[in-house]
Amino acid sequence: MDRTLSGLGRWTGLFLLLIGALLLDLSAGAVRIPLREVLHILFTSSAGDETWLFIVEKIRIPKACTAVLAGCGLSIGGLQMQTLFRNPLAEPGVLGITAGASLGVAAVMLAGGSMATLYAIKELGGGGSWLVTGAACLGAAGVMLFVLMLSRRVRDNVTMLIIGLMISSITIAVTSIWQYFSNPEEVKEYLLWTFGSLGGVSGGQLLILAVTIVAGLVVAFLSSKMLDALLLGENYARSMGLTVERARLIIICSTSLLVGSITAFCGPIGFLGIAVPHLARGAFNTANHRILIPACCVIGSILLLLCDSIAQWPGSQTVLPINIVTSLVGAPMVIFLLLRTRKLKPF
Amino acid sequence: MNSTPLLLTRSLQTGYRSQGKKIVVSGQLPELTIKAGRLICLLGPNGSGKSTLLRTLAGLQPALGGEVAVGGKTGLSSGALARQISLVLTDRIGGSNLNVSSLVALGRYPWSGWLGVLSDGDRDIIRRGIAAADIGELLERKVHTLSDGESQKVMLARALVQDTPILMLDEPTAHLDLPSRIRLMRLLHQLAREMNKGILLSTHELDLALQVADEVWLLQNVGPLHKGAPEDLVLGGVFEAAFEKEDVHFDRATGVFRIHREGSRRIRLIVTATAGGALAAFWTRRALQREGFTVAEEDSGDAIVIGEQGGRPIWVLDAGGGGRQYNSVEALIEALNHLRLE
Question: Which residues of A fall within a CB distance of 8 Å from B79?
């Protein structure tokens, strides 16, 4: 009873933090809107200033939603990778999954060929989003399947991690070759995409992103029992009746769906995938995925909302690319975790 | 006692398939059975395929030939198999944020539903497993802080919680200190008897296995698998023959391996009929063997007479004409070595 209560306390604290981060994100930006006005707009859908109403409803709310979705998706992707590979440093990026998604997007943007094609894609609107999402998902899934194929021959985690990094390098190199032979306009477009942005997603695209992320999260949550079993390693998992190959496939699908779609819409966003699962384990002091998955969602959302607020701070006209901010915030956080616990606890 | 076997093999062959080639670890094995309430020890030198056989029986790796019937059925799905066989492996679970109670609760995996939510019945079984393995005081600990002995008990509790008729353990006594090894073996023996489980464990602890096993399966690097009651295998000379190939001598009379080769110096040991005489003679013989003596039955000149004085053994060395008396093995050995120098 005692423990459930303290658990409840932690959840309440996290939700308050989440609401705080959400409001901060809605209020921060090129045009700084006071918190009271933000609340007023949220509850009454009206404001003294029509511009503020427009900004909050058409720009900031979609952006905050994107941040929440991406925060959830990337954190869960990281958690799944860390458990699957039993490696505290695993994250989609380290294993080349983000690079795979980038390759997919590059293929559409660069080899999608001429500007004309690109415009055609853009004209398609929703269809175009599906194309980019699909390409990113395919790229992510392709790399991940390849990594897993190799992982079957490798038993120890460090080797697997190095292999993942190498695959990541190869994928990035292929993407670079593509960039090298593409014309500058297309490359610029692609480069902007790699900086990452939460702002570009709205309307139909947001709906697409939400559907894929929710689907990925549902799969992740339903696979939490498998993830728990995998904590003991493949042999024990198998001895408890888990079909390891099927579990792997389900987890890959979930991670690729989550990371692929986020990378497609927001560009590669680093460090969330590695940092958040450790924060969640620290906060709830558990290895149970039924608790860790929702915890990662909440903490990931808070972190990405905060990063997004920092990217806008303080009221300047320029907005820092989100990928830069998450790295600047996430890297010290991982170092801090390493120093504090001396040994990251992977599961 | 139920006499239909929990597990039965037919013309089983173990090994690996690698790039289309079969790498045979064990030739065709005799029919192996695991029965309820029986403890079987799987013995054999390193590389004789103990782990491979265990993993094959547990369904972790496919057999090269033949079949394994569990609960009378072959080709069980992994889920069904998990309700028949639980395992304690040598895999380490270190570096984990997992605490002991969650780890043990994971044993309910094959019985719980989609999300792994536990029922009251599950919790009851978990409580019993924790009590049986005596890990009540470890529950809040993180798995990576456990010592080897504690970790082994925790993994045993997890396997008990899986609540299967068959329990298999791969070298559960490795890395344990002597008291822990003995306690674990005693516990497994009790579990077999009281919970009527069929237990198979691989081990290098031959002396413990001889004491605790209802049946021994002896694997060799070369040659067939021998099985039977440990005493029958000893009396039949199977142990001696098996280990002679490894250049190790098994002493049938004492049930232990002899480290020291037979020495060239012969000495006679004469025991007077006293209360502690036989015991003193046993340990004196050990000391003499260590010093390179062969204890001979026939008269060989030198002799040691073990007697008793005031309830304690005394040794009289009858060598080189003189007859001196010693009151400890140490003093006796020193005198013998001194004699040799002269």
Answer: 241
Q: Could you give the CA distance from residue A237 to residue A154 in angstroms, rounded to a whole number?
A: 18
Distance from CA of B110 to the nearest CA of A (A): 6
If you average pLDDT over every residue of chain B, what do you get?
A: 85
Do residue A241 and residue B79 have CB atoms under 8 angstroms apart?
Answer: yes
- B82 and A239 in contact by Cβ < 8 A? yes
Question: With bands split at pLDDT 50, 70 and 90, how would you rate the model's confidence at B54?
Answer: very high
Find the residue in B nearest to A245 (Cα). B78
pLDDT in tens, A135-194: 777 888 788 778 777 767 765 656 766 787 788 888 889 888 888 888 787 777 777 777
With an 8 Å Cβ cutoff, are B109 and A287 in contact? no
Distances A174 to A106, A111, A170, A346 between C-alpha atoms, Å: 10, 12, 6, 31
The pLDDT, as a whole number, for residue A112 is 56
Nearest CA in chain B to A278: B97
pLDDT in tens, B276-294: 778 888 888 888 888 888 8
Predicted ipTM > 0.85: no
What does DSSP say about strands B21-26 and B85-88: parallel, antiparallel, or unpaired?
unpaired
A233 reaches B (C-beta below 8 A): yes
Over 80: is that where the pLDDT of A341 sits? no
Put the strands of the sheet holding B226-228 in their side by side order: B85-88, B166-170, B198-202, B39-43, B215-218, B226-228
Question: Measured between beta carbons, which residues in chain A are less than 8 angstroms from residue B162?
Answer: 240
B51, B106, B160, B171: best mutation site toward chain A, by most A Cβ within 10 Å?
A: B106
**Under an 8 A CB cutoff, do A235 and B97 touch?**
no
Contacts of B187 (CB under 8 A, 6+ apart): B132, B133, B134, B156
- Asked if the C-beta of A3 comes within 8 angstroms of chain B's C-beta atoms, the answer is no
Q: Which of A224, A288, A343 sits opposite B102 (nearest CB)?
A: A288
Is the CB of residue A228 less than 8 Å away from at least one CB of chain B? yes
pTM of the model: 0.81
Q: What is the pLDDT of residues B147-170, one digit of tens each?
A: 888 898 999 999 999 999 999 999
Give the model confidence (pLDDT) of B201-243 as tens digits.
999 888 888 889 999 999 887 778 899 999 998 898 888 888 7
The verdict on a CB contact (< 8 Å) between A242 and B109 is: yes
Which chain A positions have a beta carbon within 8 Å of B95's beta carbon? 88, 343, 345-347
What average pLDDT does this structure show over B52-80? Answer: 88
Read off the pLDDT of residues A63-116 as tens digits, 9 standing for 90 and up: 999 999 999 999 999 999 888 888 787 887 777 778 888 888 888 777 655 554
pLDDT of residue B82: 92
Residues of chain B contacting A229 with CB distance shorter than 8 Å: 106, 109
Q: Which two tokens stand for residue B215?
A: 């049946």
